[in-house]
Structures are given as C-alpha cells and as structure tokens.
Amino acid sequence: METVDLVVVGCGPAGVTAAREAARAGLETVVLEKDAVVGAKRVCAAGLRPGFCETFDVPRAIVHCDTPRIALFDIEGVEHDFLFGPGHTSTREELDGTMGRLAGKEGAQIRTQSLFRSVESERGGRRAIVEYADLAAGERRRIAARNVFLAPGATVNVENVRAHGGATPSRFAFARWRDGLITTLQYRVYLDGRAAEIAYRTLELHYYLTQGGRQIVSWMFPKRDHLAIGLGVVGKIAGASLRSELDAFTQRVCRRLCPDVGILQMKEEGHLLYGGVPRPAFADGNVLLGGTAAGLVDATNGEGIFEAAMSGRLAAEAVAAEREHPVRAATRYAGAVAGRFARRLAHRVKLMRFLERRPARFTLLFEALARSPRFADVLQKEDLERTLGDRLYLYGQVARFAARAALG
Ligand SMILES: Cc1cc2nc3c(=O)[nH]c(=O)nc-3n(C[C@H](O)[C@H](O)[C@H](O)COP(=O)(O)OP(=O)(O)OC[C@H]3O[C@@H](n4cnc5c(N)ncnc54)[C@H](O)[C@@H]3O)c2cc1C
Fold first, then answer.
1. 342 FRET partner, CA 20 to 30 A, in 141, 281, 297, 406?
2. Ligand 1 centre from 2 Cα, in Å?
3. 33-59 pLDDT, tens digit each
4. Predicted confidence (pLDDT) per residue in 354-388, tens digit
5. Dihedral class, residue 274 (left if φ above 0, else alpha if ψ from -120 to 50, else beta)
6. Strands 227-234 and 109-111
7. Which DSSP symbol is given to 3?
8. Are 34 and 217 in contact (CB under 8 A)?
C-alpha cells in the first residue's frame, strides 16, 4: 500500500495550509479533496481579517476589496460603525484555488475527486489507513500515513474515525455538535452599475429576529464584481422561510446601497456552518482534527477562515516537529489548538447567547464598540496578542457593558 507522512482530508483553508506548510517542511503530503476544482463549490462570504495575506503568505491579488469599516446593525436596524484593519474580501474560488496551487508548488499532491470514507489507526498509532473513493476512476483506494489531518468542514462525519483498530469510540464524538449547526443562504448579487462607494469599504453585519422570532445574523460583503448578501440561522429552518427572509434583507440592502442600480443576476448558494463551542478533543491517536470540523468558528460573526488556516499551520508544525512519533505529534497539535483558540471561541458562544437572551443588548454592545475604537480593537485580538494593559482595559469595558446590560 502507498505510504506517506501526512494525509490531509479536505482542501479548504485548514487542509490546504497544513499541506502547503507540511510539504515545505519536507513531509510527503497527499490531500484528498472531493470536489473536481479546489474552492469552486465553497459557499462563503470570504471576509478576511486584517493581515491575513501576510500571515499566510498569500498574494494580495486574491483581495477584492479592502474594508476598513465595520458596520453593525442592531435589532432595530440602527447602524453602528467603527474602523479596523483594514479587513479584506475575496472569493473562495480564488483563495482556496491560489493556496492549492501554492501547496502544489511546495510538493503537496492534491488529489481532487477523492472522497474520504474512513480512517482507522493501527494499534500503537504508528500508522493510519485512510480509505477513499477515487470518483474519476470509480474505485476505492487505501493509503497509509503516519498522521492524518482531517479538515472536511462542517459536514464532517466523525463516526468514520476509528482509533486503535476500532476498539474504542472516536474521541471526536460530540453530542452538542448538532446544536451548533447553522443553516445559511447567500446571494451573489451582480449589479448593472456601481453601488454607493461606501459599500465597497464596509463589512456589514446585521443582527435581528426572523418573522418567527429566531435570531438571525446576516451580512453584506462587497466583492469586485458583486455583493455577497446572505444570512444564517442556528438549527434547521424551512427553505422557503429562509429564502423569504433573504429576499427581504436583500431588498433592504439594495434600497440603501444601490437604489438606482438594476440587478443583472443573482446566484443562490447555501451550506451548513458551525457556530457552537469547539469540540472537546482535537486529536485521537495519530489523527488530528482541524478547521470548522473541529468547531473553530467565531459564533458572533461566523469567522472561521483564519481559525482554519491557523489550525492547518499548527498541524504542519506538530507533525514536522514529531516526525517519528505520530501520536506525540497529534497530542502536541491538540494542545496548541486548544491554547490558541478554545477559550476565545467558547467565550464567543457565551457572549452570543447572552446577547440573544435580550436582543437590546446588541445595541448596548454596538454603541460601546462604535464609541471606543480601542474596545473594538482589543476585543478582536487573540488572547495571546493582548498586552496586560489591553487585558485590564478589556475587563473594565466588559464590566461596564455587563452592568449596563443587566440594567437594560
Ligand atoms: C455562508 C457562509 C459564509 C461564511 N463567511 C465567512 C467569512 O466571511 N469569513 C470567514 O472567516 N469565514 C466565513 N465562513 C466560515 C468559513 O467558510 C469556514 O469556517 C472555513 O471555510 C473553514 O475552513 P475548513 O478548511 O475547515 O473547511 P471548508 O472550507 O469547509 O473546506 C472543507 C473541504 O473539504 C472538502 N471535503 C468535505 N468532505 C470531504 C470528503 N468526505 N472527502 C474529501 N473532501 C471533503 C470540501 O469539498 C472542502 O473543500 C462562512 C461560512 C458560510 C457557510
């Protein structure tokens, strides 16, 4: 059987970053991607945090718009804005496609039309056997690896991970996973003219309730040639209701940003996203779990590209550092991901639930962010990037906000 150092499942930001950086470190790396073209089918608003291209060494050519302004719309539709970054927008065709090509240049083998089926770690964790379907040839194949990095996104099926010859249930199993799934729908709105200039400098996020009283988060992210207008609701919702919410939202956005411009074409796309707490385990034997499949998404705004790419980097680093010890590599990776993300992302879920319980709290928070650029700046930083001064300042702001929210 073919044997390599690392098999990566999924060529999204998590998988492709792991593959690129592992190959660069000299590891023989194979990526299994079910789609025929990397990134072509990804549904995403593709908003990127400031510094993304520099952090992951991705060419600036993928950037559609620099967006130095964030506009948060509260439950009453009132806009609160502040400056940051700037952030950026792209499309996943370009982001994943470009990163895929760069990974290939480093020597990673990307096998498209390869549908992952299962992974089974041998006892002792020296090797894992991955089974996949070669969709082009219509055949089942097996490949052995010292480590496997699983990053197939929100639709991951962890039942297919069998550790220690299947003797024990997967450590990735997580009863609360389904509760965190978000149904999303998005239109790519192609206009026959330009929207207001401010639209191309702004990431808009709207927090309000559906007709049925459920919390909704929607967005307008500008692109070179279209506006990405979409929304997400936790749990399942009938397709017709979701579409009618999105139609109403799209009309509101277009009335405000492009009242005199016609719509040439609208492309509809939908996918699942995850907005709950991260999984309790990121490694099982010699198998590593990353990106959205590991629950690494910010519940307040749906950001998961940065988290995914960073988990890929941490996976490559751990596997390269522990070449001869696949289980140790996985354990090292799990510690690094937990240290970097688990606390912040769990806090974000708590914050979101706190705000949702009394939606007027969104207004209080957005007012505070708009009033104080430093609050917005410190809140967006990772824990490890915050100075002691930042932390003290943040505690003060959070205490003030909590006191006002409790009274409100
Ligand atoms: C509508 C929407 C809007 C979003 N907007 C933003 C945003 O603006 N900014 C942001 O940061 N995040 C956003 N996100 C979240 C972001 O898309 C994810 O967090 C991010 O894509 C996670 O990357 P990943 O590599 O973990 O998984 P994915 O990007 O989902 O990639 C997984 C890859 O695995 C492949 N795959 C799946 N199953 C298999 C299998 N069985 N075999 C082989 N391959 C498989 C898929 O084809 C895919 O290529 C959005 C998500 C949605 C749904």
1. 406
2. 28
3. 999 999 999 999 999 999 999 999 999
4. 999 999 999 999 999 999 989 988 988 888 888 99
5. beta
6. unpaired
7. E
8. no
